[in-house]
Amino acid sequence: MGDSDENKDLTIAKLKVYRKELEHHAQMDRTLTSTACNDLLAYMEKNKGDDFLVTRNGWNPFTDPGGSWWLCK
């Protein structure tokens, strides 16, 4: 699948930036933070050393409660 391959090619630096964006967005407006996003942020908080977090292209975790995420190790 093309999207999956593209996600796996993300660099650790990009993932760190994405993590910071997630955390910043969640702090700025909790009302837009979906359950899936809260789960994702909780996971990241427990696993700060894991920089291999990958999310589905085009998923907005703040507005799409049915969104999904997975890890690529």
UniProtKB/TrEMBL annotation:
Outline the extent of the G protein gamma domain. 8-73
Q: InterPro entries under this entry?
A: G-protein_gamma-like_dom, GGL_sf
The UniProt entry, under Pfam families, shows: G-gamma
Tell me which domain of life the UniProt entry assigns to the organism this sequence originates from: Eukaryota
Q: Which Gene3D superfamilies match?
A: Transducin (heterotrimeric G protein), gamma chain (4.10.260.10)
Question: What's any GO biological process attached to this entry?
Answer: G protein-coupled receptor signaling pathway
* Designated name of the protein: G protein gamma domain-containing protein
Which species is this UniProt entry from? Answer: Steinernema carpocapsae
